[in-house]
Amino acid sequence: xxxxxxxxxxxxxxxxxxxxxxxxxxxxxxxxxxxxxxxxxxxxxxxxxxxxxxxxxxxxxxxxxxxxxxxxxxxxxxxxxxxxxxxxxxxxxxxxxxxxxxxxxxxxxxxxxxxxxxxxxxxxxxxxxxxxxxxxxxxxxxxxxxxxxxxxxxxxxxxxxxxxxxxxxxxxxxxxxxxxxxxxxxxxxxxxxxxxxxxxxxxxxxxxxxxxxxxxxxxxxxxxxxxxxxxxxxxxxxxxxxxxxxxxxxxxxxxxxxxxxxxxxxxxxxxxxxxxxxxxxxxxxxxxxxxxxxxx
Length: 296
Known about the structure:
Layout lengths: L3 H12 L2 H12 L5 H14 L17 H5 L16 E3 L4 E8 L4 E5 L2 E4 H4 L4 H5 L5 E6 L7 E3 L4 E9 L8 H6 L9 E8 L2 E8 L7 E3 L3 E4 L7 E4 L9 E2 L4 E5 L4 E6 L4 E3 L8 E2 L4 E5 L8
Antiparallel strand pairs: 1-18, 2-5, 2-17, 3-4, 5-15, 6-14, 7-8, 7-12, 7-13, 8-9, 9-15, 10-11, 10-14, 16-18
């Protein structure tokens, strides 16, 4: 049973002007407010117990805006990348919200709630079909986490899809009580090709997430608009967008969620992956499944 306080929090999200609130907070987060900005950063560090010793620059006054603090770089070596070519690594510091098989084109959102792969990725059934019977994982980034998103394996970008939507919070309380949450929120879907098959990495927006950025296109949202938009990229040549495992591919300006989709037979999750587990970018996430060699 939900408490009265939790019921109020859910109802408030339904009625709040979430886009307007998010844009307002985004403007404040981008403001160079001098001592005011530094005071807000110091409060945030205390409130969320952020370990600034990991940051490339640990001085709160170094950051002219809250956004620059929020997407701060870490010291070199703070997140070692698992260098086993057969291992996928976590793309972000986060919490494992859900993971497991994609069953009948559906992903688990929370107990009693599922959502549709095709809807999640912007309505392309042929692309959704590539992941039937595969695996998924939903990783929740809390405000205290490092907010740059990296690649779980070597890959080349083939398509980016912007899907407009709402901006509900993506915290566990909301995920458990707002149906179809991740297929309703604004999101950026990135389709990659790897040596082992396709892979999707989705950056999901949320309340007061000031923007979603990618390393190849800069800020995608805001303001991407109210229609699904698609960008195609070459897989070969000088214009191909290639990544090595562990390289940064995007970032959130305030906390949100990363969803990974893998096709059937491509990978198996590491034995240490479990619900609510804390993840660290670069640590083992799963292993590629060896393909059987055809008999002559």
